[in-house]
Structures are given as structure tokens and as C-alpha cells.
Amino acid sequence: MSCVARRKTVLLKSLERPRSWVLLVLLSVAAQQLVAAGMIYAKAALAPVLMERAWEATLAAGGEVHKPWPWADTWPVARLRVPQLGIDQFVLAGATGNALAFGPGLDAAGARPGAPGTAVIAGHRDTHFRFLQRLRPAMSLQLELPDGRRVSYRVGDARVVDARQPQMSPATDGPAGLELVTCYPFDALQPGGPLRYVVRAAPAGGTPAAGTPAAGTPAAGLAVPDLFPVHPSGGVFEL
Fold first, then answer.
1. Residue in 232, 203, 206, 227 with CA at minimum distance from that of residue 217
2. 211-217 contact pairs (CB < 8 A, 24+)
3. How far apart, in whole angstroms, are the C-alpha atoms of residue 160 and residue 183?
4. pLDDT tens per residue across span 201-222
5. Phi, then psi, of 198 in degrees rounded to 5
6. Cα gap 175→195, rounded to integer Å
7. CA dihedral of 207, 181, 155, 117, whole degrees rounded to 10
8. Going by C-beta distance under 8 Å and a sequence separation of 6 or more, which residues neighbour residue 234?
9. Is the preceding peptide bond at 185 cis, omega within 30 degrees of 0?
10. Which residues cross the membrane (predicted)?
11. 142-176 residue pLDDT tens
12. How far apart are CA 204 and CA 110, in angstroms?
């Protein structure tokens, strides 16, 4: 073999080595992504089962907190049912992104369900709280509490508010009430918009919470379903 041929062979081998390393790195990254995606789907499938077990343990212990898995940063604090729509969801502690990935979350700024004041539960418009657009006035909601009590509510009204505007904090005393909050509009292409859709409910047989605006006051410029009186103000929280 001539000297020139030998040089070409050495050069080709030296070029092949970086290519092999690049291919190995790409394969490793692809494998990591596949494993991560598999874990996400596995957790999404397993989470409801673990949440239900944690809730049953909480009920059996008279309200003592039980986490669905040891490192969880949230846990079930109530069970929300809407019999007419077939909705049965666990409400989790905190309205943060980590909690909302697994279900609606109880906002710590509001009251505890069943206690005086307004309890606020938030959820994503495209998953757990998509059903809010199907609620109708006088529809029945039910919250099961950690001590086993069940509190029934009746849907009152719905409104759209702008999260960029100053909002009142939810009442932590006075008449009991419930607010279900999600992003709006439900069919928005981009997530994280400023509008919030708020459904308010009062205990079954009770009266609306104090400070409720007069029915029939329209929210200017907002196209909302003609199912409820729509009001322009009230407490709303970032989702």
C-alpha cells in the first residue's frame, strides 16, 4: 500500500470516530426521552388509583393526611361529585401546577370546604374542569370532606373576570360558599390567558354569599354562555 493510500485510510478512520460518538450520544438522548415519556404516562395512569387509596386511608383515619406516594407534594383534601354529569374527582391540596397536573386543587387563600367563608377550587379548562361549561343553574354539587361529612351545594351563577385586574380575596368568614375557577375561553388555542371563568355555588337550601353583585349585570365585551347571569367582579386566582 502506498503512503498516500495509508494516509487516506488513517484520515477516514479519524473521521469515523467522531461520527460514532455523535451517534451514541443521540441514541442515549433518545432513550432518555422515551423513558421519561413512559414514566409520565405511567404516572398519569397510576395516579388516580393512588389518590383513591390515599383518600380511603384519610377517611379511615378520621381526616389524617395520607399522601398518594411518599414524595408527593400534594394529597387529596376532598372529593367533588356532580351526579348529573357523572363527575367524580379528588380535590388536591394547593392550586399549584404540580397539584393541578393530577386534579383540581383547593386554593389555600380561601376557606376550607364546609367552614364559614368561600372555598375556592381551581382546575385546568382542558382537562379536569372542562365540565364547568356544562354546569347549569341549580345543578347539585357535592363535596366529601376528610372527616366523612358530605356538603351539598347548588350552582348559582357564573362570570368571567380578568386576572390582570385587582380582585377581592375570597371571604374566610361569613356564609359558606364555593367557587370553581378555570381559564377562559374553553376553546382558547393559547394557554395562560388572563380571563377566568368562575362558577359560584351556595350550600343546598342556603342563600348566596354576602357581597354577591346584582343578577343580570353583564360583563362588557365578554361572550359567555347565556346560561347564567354574568357579573364583572369577584375573587379569581392565577392558574
1. 232
2. 211/168, 211/171, 212/156, 215/157
3. 9
4. 999 965 444 333 333 333 333 3
5. -120, 120
6. 26
7. -20
8. 159, 161, 167, 168, 179, 198, 200, 213
9. yes
10. 21-42
11. 999 999 999 999 999 999 999 888 777 787 778 88
12. 20
Q: In 3D, which of 97, 220, 237 has the Cα closest to residue 166?
A: 237
Task: Decide if 77 contacts 105 (C-beta within 8 A).
Answer: no
Instruction: In whole angstroms, give the CA distance from residue 175 to residue 130.
Output: 27
Pick the CATH number of 73-203 from 1.10.418.10, 3.30.1330.60, 2.40.260.10, 3.20.20.190: 2.40.260.10
Q: Cell for 182?
A: 378555570
Biggest CA pair distance of the chain: 100
Looking up cell 386534579 gives 103
Q: Give the global pTM.
A: 0.72
What single DSSP character describes residue 206?
Answer: -
CA distances to 2, 12, 18, 44, 177 from 6, rounded to whole Å, are 6, 10, 20, 58, 85
213 three-state secondary structure: coil
Q: What is the DSSP string of 65-94?
A: ---SSTT-S--EEEEEEEGGGTEEEEEEE-
Domain ranges of the chain: 1-67, 73-203
Which residue is associated with the grid cell 470516530? Answer: 17
Cell digits for 141? 354539587
Q: Give the whole-angstrom CA distance, residue 18 versus residue 130.
A: 51
Copy the grid coordinates of residue 84. Answer: 348529573
Q: Spell out the residues 6+ positions from residue 90 whose beta carbon is closer than 8 angstroms to its own.
A: 48, 51, 52, 55, 76, 78, 79, 80, 103
